[in-house]
Amino acid sequence: MINRWNRREFLQKTSAATLAALAAGAPIPGLLSGCSGAEKDKAKKQANVRGTADTVILLWMAGGMAHTETFDPKRYTPYETGMEGNRVLSTFKSMPTALDGIHFSDGLQSIGKVMDRGTLIRSYVAADMGHILHSRHQYHWHTSYEPPQTVAAPHLGSWIAKELGPKNPVIPAFIDIGQRFTVGEAEELKAFHTAGFLGNEFGPFFIPDPSQGLESVRPPIGMDARRFERRNQLYNELISNSPVGEFGSDYQKESLRRSMEQAYRLLNSPEAKAFDLSTEPKHIYERYNTGRFGLGCLLARRLTEQGARFISVTTEYEPFKGWDTHENGHSRLEDMKCQIDGPIAQLILDLEKTGHLDRTMIILASEFSRDMMVEGRPDAKVQEQVKQPDILTDPKFYGMHRHFTDGCSVLMFGGGIKKGFVYGKTADERPCKTIEKPIHIEGIHQTIYHALGIASDTHYEVEKRPFYITPDGVAKPVMDLLV
Amino acid sequence: MTIVAESFWLWQFLGRLHPLIVHFPVGLLCVALVLEVISWFRKSTELRAGINAMLWIGTISAILAAGLGLVLVNQEDYAGKGVLVHQWSGLATMVLAILTVIALRSGRVNLYRSLLILTVVGVSVAGHYGALLTHGEDYISSVLPFGDQPNVANSPANNAMFASLNTSKQLTAKQVQELNLEIRSILAHNCYSCHSATKTKGELRLDSKALIMKGGKHGAILKAGHPEDSEIIRRITLPADDKEAMPTKGKRLTENEVALLSLWIKAGAPWPSGAEKSIYRVAALEPRLPILPAATVDINNPIDRLVNVYFHKNKIEWKSVVDDRTYMRRVYLDIIGLLPTPAKIQAFEADTRPDKREALVKELLSRNGDYAQHWITFWNDALRNDYSGTGYITGGRFDITQWLYASLKKNKPYNWFVRELISPTKESSGFIKGIKWRGTINSSQRTEMQAAQNVAQVLLGLNLKCASCHDSFISDWKLADAYAFANVFADTTLEINRCDKPTGKMAGRQVLFKELGQISVDAPTEKRLRELADFLVQPKDGRLYRTLVNRIWAQLMGRGIVEPVDAMDNEPWSQDLLDWLAYDFVQNGYDIKKLIYTITTSKTYQLPSVGVKDADLVMAPTYVFEGMVRRRLTAEQFADAVSLAFNPIYQDTSIVKMLPKTIQKEIAFPRASLVKNDPFLTALGRPNRETVSTSRTSQANLLQALELTNGTTFNEALKRGAEQWKAKYPSSDLLVKELYRKSLGRDPKPKEMIVAQKIVGVQPSVEGIEDLVWAISLHPEFQLIY
């Protein structure tokens, strides 16, 4: 209740200001868009919202990660030819974790061992949008708005970049690791990998291949440091010796010079070395090296240590690849778990060791879950994306191949998240849907924003309409998840 | 909208019982003490049984209250010193009350009485801090005629307010209007969901003057002139957990919103006369021909004659027009999006004809291909036409590239252009067909509604987005209007959805401006669209043409006569100029090139450019026109400028394949407007064309600078070019001169030559050339249209 203000004093003060503004002929809307006004925001941030985190790492399980095959295992039924799919809830055995009575699916032992450092959410419910579609659900997850929208909705990372700016001025505030845009549905992916109406400035800095991270922050290929420095120096010299002064000082020119200077500083900074995975000790590098995702985790760790603000690391979305299992679900998941288990656990342990975990929030999530029988959610009839047989005549049908939205797992670690905590529950029999404490995307976003000290009703006026950080600004952080 | 279940409801419920239960210990224990004192004075025991009962019930309820209080403080967002004091004094009181009861039972009268007094002290302290939490610091003191008031009134800001109010200086009509817009907007945003025609909780409606003044079930909600006595202010300023607090659900009102409501009540809750009169500025629909001021020797272009009046009024002196080189660079970039070649500049500077500038503009406008290749960027943004993007993959989107390119190249009269967008051929149907995502979508985003929104925004400069979900609170547009308009585009009759919920009402069929014509409600879609197109392009639809001329003006001048360019109800900085341009446009056969000619040959256009320190100032309503606002090159202009001055950024293979071969053949070099969006263009500001986009930002940023510093697209083009230049220009002197002429349209100054030669080396090296071109293309002089 600290944000309670002295009502009378407040009324008098602000209405005086308002009246003064009116008298001066200033437009009142300016006052309203004070929602984005730095003064008020700052006051609000200090007063209303506590900040327990400075950095966010999103570990994105692209393509729909089945909860019963990962962090919420159910009864295991081994494969038999001719078996009814309906009998199968999990295709893996479950293994104990660091938390009493909490089991993970086989293959996630390393994450299981560090689960006492974070919170396991077992009740994430994804939206129903008629068809269960990866691109629309991913859009929804990352922006908290269902596509399409009349206004280009900003990505979670862009909101954070806009509200908090970079943590270290030479490291871009929003870094997106691992997604290439040359794959199927690339245009749909681009639609939410954007700062939307907030402006390109807050958009993602893409590093599609973490092992090539350095390429993005070093002088162009074939240019050594000396030439790079000289080029920059002569550039400045050229400008100061040109008659450019006659254009006076305007914001375009100033912002151009400033951003060139910033880019130069980044590319020349010691922090840029963080992008270079080859400088990592071999034995640690190998712990992460399960492929591009694993190395993405390593890059995320290194950037976090140098002061990154928001980093997304994805297993990469590509239709019918990765977590998007429409056949061979069981064997494909063995691979996927292998890719993520070691690196994620290592990331958490490494950040803990260096003390960064206290102020870094890590979130592992996916756009929805999967089930062998149910497409969408139990009571909603939605069109099936890929035909699946009810009787398993071949091992390739053994796995979670349909899209399921009614119960998904999310992991959260660090940055003020409770330790060793389990939130929500799904049913132990099909449909394995959320039966306790459902949580939706707005709640997840608000919890992240809250931990970062961003007010839940943050908004901007776009075409005279308020656009909130989550739809209508009504959702609240899930305080249960926070210490 | 789903509201996240934060925590188990029972805990929340129990916690919120705390403020209810606390009244028992407060009341009972205090009265018990009073009775105890009375008994002590009277030395009587007749009250004993009652006192004992009060103590017992008081103590039990104190324990209960403390418990619930602990639940509450953990459930909700309480923090701070006040809460701590309240919590611990409450717990202490509970302990004291228990001790009091124990002392009473053990018969130790003096101890018991002392403890009772302490308990009541405790209850008072805890109660006081609790009340501060719920009612605010000065709940009681604020109604006193003395106290901290002088303090507040001493601040200068407040003096200003009191001065204004005490001298009973009336707000001007305009201020009342603005205030009302805010009030209605606040009520609409925060209160309508429960207090309007749709839902009327507490028998209170806030959607009209009469209903607000009438109040609700419990009587009046405001007392004009007295915000402090107004129920509405009391309710919205209660703490969120108070059961009387408003709004009961969702977001609290902001401080500014509360302040505005209070100010409004203090000012007597003024409301424009006549409930029906709009409180929004609504631009006239019909065209208007303003009286042109007489021409003088210097000032004969109609634009200049009108601007001259504006300058007089704003005490602005005419400056002399820019030199030939600057003018040439401007018109080249503005009309065809390219830099002039050194030869052209030389010839133009040497030309002695008095009308050479007019001749130059004519020549540029006649370069039909170049013109189309430049302006297609603007129209692609506005009509959200793109060569790649969402929707294409599932056949949910159609491009209009060929139609658009051909229309621009032919300079299709704008009335025909609009007609073909609304009542389309196959090639132009993409605009109103919109983007269809698979699955269910919000009803305000169905493709018919997209068509209504986009036609309204792009062609009519009005915002229908609010009204496609609910009655707008930034304009008079109603949900029914938006649906009636969308329904014109629909094959079946649309059901009106309010905030994505079906209302059971079917939409009518109507043009937004009914005076333009009546749609045949039952006609097939094709016929209806033909009617709509005919209605909208009529000369009497002044709005359509004002919107267009304002957009073109903004493209050429860096700022519209009305801003934002999509909000044509806003006040123009010169109504006469806007009206004249629109009127003249219609008179001249809807000819966009003619319009561009009129503007670019005016003295007004030729004034020196104006630099702005802060981007927000350009769009501010306080903006005063003094000349073209300096702009940065668009992504496409920049890429093309580098391509022409040095070496093509894009290879032939980049050109989108959807253009017919005939067009592909006539393209001199791969222009950026005709390639798919890529990281390079995105970084430089090409929007993803998922939504309509009618202006681009001029501000540079880090991601852009990074792309320009080490991005592959740019650096590879530099490398390819450097090799050719090295072969062509063996001496650095020649090379630098040529590069300056081609890119900046001038020779290097001696000092610049020295630095440039340092970069390229005496014998130009490939690396040196790359670095010099890089430095020049990032030079503000290269990057700006000035």
TrEMBL record, chain A:
Originating species: Spirosoma validum
Protein name as annotated: DUF1501 domain-containing protein
Source species, domain of life: Bacteria
Pfam families: DUF1501
TrEMBL record, chain B:
UniProt-recorded Gene Ontology molecular function terms: electron transfer activity; heme binding; metal ion binding
TM region positions: 20-41, 53-73, 85-104, 111-132
UniProt organism field: Spirosoma validum
Keyword Signal tagged: no
Superkingdom of the source species: Bacteria
Pfam families found in the cross-reference section: DUF2231 (PF09990), PSCyt1 (PF07635), PSCyt2 (PF07583), PSD1 (PF07587)
Domain (Cytochrome c) ranges: 178-269
Cross-referenced InterPro entries: Cyt_c-like_dom (IPR009056), Cyt_c-like_dom_sf (IPR036909), Cyt_c_Planctomycete-type (IPR011429), DUF1549 (IPR011444), DUF1553 (IPR022655), DUF2231_TM (IPR019251)
The name this protein goes by in its record: DUF1549 domain-containing protein
Keywords assigned: Heme, Iron, Membrane, Metal-binding, Transmembrane, Transmembrane helix
